[in-house]
C-alpha cells in the first residue's frame, strides 16, 4: 500500500492510498479519514460509496463528513467507483465503464477482467482497511446515487457485515431504469435473472434489512426519474421495513445537497455504531 497524500483534518487525518488490487487487476486508489479518537483506540467505520463519474475524491473534498466523523469518533472510507488505467476497458458515455462500476461483479467481456467492484469493496478493501488501520469490526455504509445503490445492495446482501445503513438520492430500482438496464446488460449479459441481486427494490421485497434505514432525496433532483424512489418506498411499506425516507423541497442531485445532510447521516451511523 502506497501513501499518496496525508492531511491533518479536524484533529484527525485524511489520507489517500494506492494499492495493487487482486479483485480489479489494477492499482486502486481509496481515501481514509481517521478521527482523533483513533490515536488511542480502534473506532467504528462508515463506508461512503460515490456516484457516477466520481473518484474517491468527490465526497472526501465536498461531502463535509470529516467534521462530524471527528466529533463522533468514526472513521470514513471512500473507495473509487471503478478500476482505472490503460488496461481497463471503457466506453464513450459517462455512465458505463470507468467511473461507473455499479458495485457489481461483471460476468461479460470485455468488462469481467477488471470490473469486480462488489468483491473489491465487500472483501478485498474491507480486509485491507481492517488490517491496516485502527478500525473496529463495527461498520456502517452509505452512498450517493450509484453509490447509494451500492450501499443498499451490499448491506442487504451482507447483513452480518454492517450495523447501520443510509443513502443519499440512491438509484434504487436499476432493473427498471436507464441507470441500470444499460449497465447490467453490458456487465451481466441479457439474462435478467442475474440482475436482481443488484437491485435494492428487489432485495427489499425479498429479504429487507435487519435495522432501520435513512434515505434523503432532493425533490428537485434532475435525475429523480432514473433513481425511482417511489419503487423502493413501496417495497419498504409492503415489507413494514423501518425506513425514514425524507424528500427535501428545492434540493437537487449535487454535493450541495449531500453536504447539507452529511451531519444527519453521520449522527445516524454514529448512534448505531457506537451503540448509543
Ligand atoms: N455526468 C452526468 C451526471 C453525473 C453526476 O451527476 N454524477 C453525480 C453522481 S450520480 C456526482 O456526484 N457527480 C460528481 C460531483 O458532483 O462531484 C451529467 O453531467 O449529466
Gist?
The protein is of the alpha/beta class and 276 residues long.
Walk me through this protein's architecture.
The protein is an alpha/beta fold and 276 residues long. It has nine helices and nine strands. The protein has a nine-stranded mixed beta sheet, with helices on both faces. Strand 2 (12-20) and strand 3 (27-34) form a beta hairpin. Helix 6 (200-206) packs parallel to helix 8. It is globular and about 50 Å long. The two termini are 34 Å apart. Bound molecules: glutathione (GSH). This is S-formylglutathione hydrolase.
Number of domains: 1
Shape: globular
Under CATH, the homologous superfamily reads Alpha/Beta hydrolase fold, catalytic domain
- Name the CATH architecture: 3-Layer(aba) Sandwich
Pfam families: Esterase (PF00756)
Catalytic activity: S-formylglutathione + H2O = formate + glutathione + H(+)
Function: Serine hydrolase involved in the detoxification of formaldehyde.
Protein name: S-formylglutathione hydrolase
Amino acid at each position: 500500500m502506497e501513501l499518496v497524500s496525508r492531511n491533518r483534518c479536524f484533529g484527525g487525518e485524511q489520507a489517500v492510498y494506492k494499492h495493487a488490487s487482486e479483485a480489479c487487476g489494477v492499482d486502486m486508489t481509496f481515501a481514509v479519514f481517521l478521527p482523533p479518537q483513533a490515536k488511542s483506540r480502534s473506532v467504528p467505520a462508515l463506508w461512503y460509496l460515490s456516484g457516477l463519474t466520481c473518484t474517491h475524491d468527490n465526497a472526501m473534498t465536498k461531502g463535509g463528513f470529516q467534521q462530524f466523523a471527528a466529533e463522533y469518533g468514526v472513521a470514513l472510507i471512500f473507495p473509487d467507483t471503478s478500476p482505472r488505467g490503460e488496461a481497463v476497458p471503457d466506453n464513450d458515455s459517462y455512465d458505463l465503464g470507468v467511473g461507473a462500476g455499479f458495485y457489481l461483479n461483471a460476468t461479460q467481456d470485455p468488462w469481467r477482467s477488471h470490473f469486480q467492484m462488489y468483491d473489491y469493496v465487500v472483501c478485498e478493501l474491507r480486509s485491507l482497511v481492517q488490517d491496516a488501520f485502527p478500525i473496529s469490526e463495527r461498520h456502517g455504509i452509505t452512498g450517493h446515487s450509484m453509490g447509494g445503490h451500492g450501499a443498499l445492495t451490499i448491506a442487504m446482501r451482507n447483513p452480518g457485515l454492517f450495523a447501520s445503513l443510509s443513502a443519499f438520492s440512491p438509484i434504487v430500482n436499476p432493473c427498471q431504469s436507464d441507470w441500470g438496464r444499460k449497465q447490467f446488460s453490458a456487465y451481466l449479459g441479457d439474462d435478467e435473472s442475474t440482475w436482481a441481486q443488484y437491485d435494492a427494490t428487489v432485495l427489499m421485497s425479498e429479504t429487507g434489512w435487519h435495522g432501520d434505514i435513512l434515505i434523503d432525496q432532493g425533490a428537485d433532483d434532475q435525475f429523480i426519474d432514473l433513481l425511482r424512489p417511489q419503487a423502493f418506498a413501496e417495497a419498504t411499506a409492503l415489507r413494514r421495513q423501518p425506513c425514514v425516507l425524507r424528500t427535501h423541497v428545492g434540493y437537487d442531485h449535487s454535493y450541495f445537497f449531500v453536504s447539507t445532510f452529511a451531519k444527519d447521516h453521520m449522527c445516524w451511523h454514529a448512534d448505531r455504531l457506537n451503540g448509543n
